[in-house]
Write a structure and sequence with these properties.
- The chain is of the alpha/beta class.
- The chain has a single domain (5-247), classed as Aldolase class I (TIM Barrel, Alpha-Beta Barrel), CATH 3.20.20.
- 40% of the residues lie in helices and 16% in strands.
- The protein contains 11 helices and 8 strands.
- Strands 1-2-3-4-5-6-7-8 form an 8-stranded parallel beta barrel, surrounded by 6 helices.
- Strand 7 (208-211), helix 10 and strand 8 (230-233) form a beta-alpha-beta unit.
- Helix 1 (16-30) runs parallel beside helix 11 (240-247), helix 5 packs across helix 7 and helix 7 crosses helix 8.
- The longest helix is centred in the C-terminal third of the chain and has 18 residues, at 180-197.
- The two termini are 14 Å apart.
- The mean pLDDT is 96.
- Its EC number is 5.3.1.1.
- Belongs to the triosephosphate isomerase family.
- This is Triosephosphate isomerase.
- It comes from Pelovirga terrestris.
């Protein structure tokens, strides 16, 4: 059985005080949960303070991005090792906003995934098609290239540290969610890709999260699907009440 994961991506929101307050609320309400992984990804500036708030709780810390180098003359960047030092267990790579706004390529994202794993952290690799790509029947081709190129050089052993997050770009922050069956179809396709690249064992063990306007009123249906192992939550993770309900999904 794959252990479900609910991850909250706070994106560019919350001051130090607001981040600490939200983290404290989550700890208070989720301290007894142990049958699913709970992850939150604050902004860089809040990582260390949030890490202290969630110590001795079931909540784990993630960073929203990294730079694939250990050290060096890379002004403004943060390495996986430094993020681990700040308390992170996971690093998100390949989010569609970075692909679109910052023109990040599959190859660059692959470097981040590799660097994250080499630093001893878990990699959350985001993939997903745009509305244009879906409507022009390029969806499966896009997902295939994002998976193959994003995981290039990642070994079977290293795959134990990889989580895939499928986020159809047309559903992120739009209020439009892929239907339960639509999402399941994409997840099943992704699992099939992993089986072809690695093995049935790796495919069955790898968690595939759904992201894209996940809310308290749709999480139960999504989590009831065979190949959906959790959620990468955006806007709804910024409100304690909403995120807590999502974490406490019933499938």
């Amino acid at each position: 059985m794959r252990k479900p994961m609910i991850a909250g991506n706070w994106k560019l929101h919350k001051t130090l005080e607001e981040s600490s307050q939200l983290a404290a609320e989550l700890v208070q309400q989720l301290s007894t949960i142990n049958d699913r992984d709970i992850v939150i990804a604050p902004v860089f500036t809040a990582l260390a303070s949030v890490s202290k708030k969630i110590t001795n709780s079931p909540i784990q810390l993630a960073a929203q991005n990294c730079y694939p180098a250990e050290t060096g003359a890379f002004t403004g960047e943060v390495s996986p090792a430094l993020l681990g030092d700040a308390g992170c267990h996971y690093i998100i790579s390949g989010h569609s906003e970075r692909r679109q706004l910052l023109n990040e390529t599959n190859q660059f994202i692959n470097q981040k995934v590799s660097a994250t794993i080499n630093a001893g952290l878990g990699a959350i690799l985001c993939i997903g098609e745009t509305l244009h790509e879906r409507e022009t029947h390029q969806m499966l081709e896009v997902l295939t290239s994002q998976i193959k190129e994003g995981l290039a050089g990642i070994s079977t052993t290293q795959m134990t540290r990889v989580v895939i997050a499928y986020e159809p770009v047309w559903a992120i922050g739009t209020g439009v969610t892929a239907g339960d069956e639509q999402a399941q179809e994409a997840h099943a396709f992704i699992r099939g890709l992993l089986q072809g690249l690695y093995s049935q064992e790796v495919a069955e063990a790898t968690r595939i999260l759904y992201g894209g306007s996940v809310k308290p009123n749709n999480v139960d249906g999504l989590m009831a699907q065979t190949d959906i192992d959790g959620a990468l939550v955006g806007g709804a993770s910024l409100k304690a009440e909403d995120f807590i309900r999502i974490v406490k999904f019933e499938s």
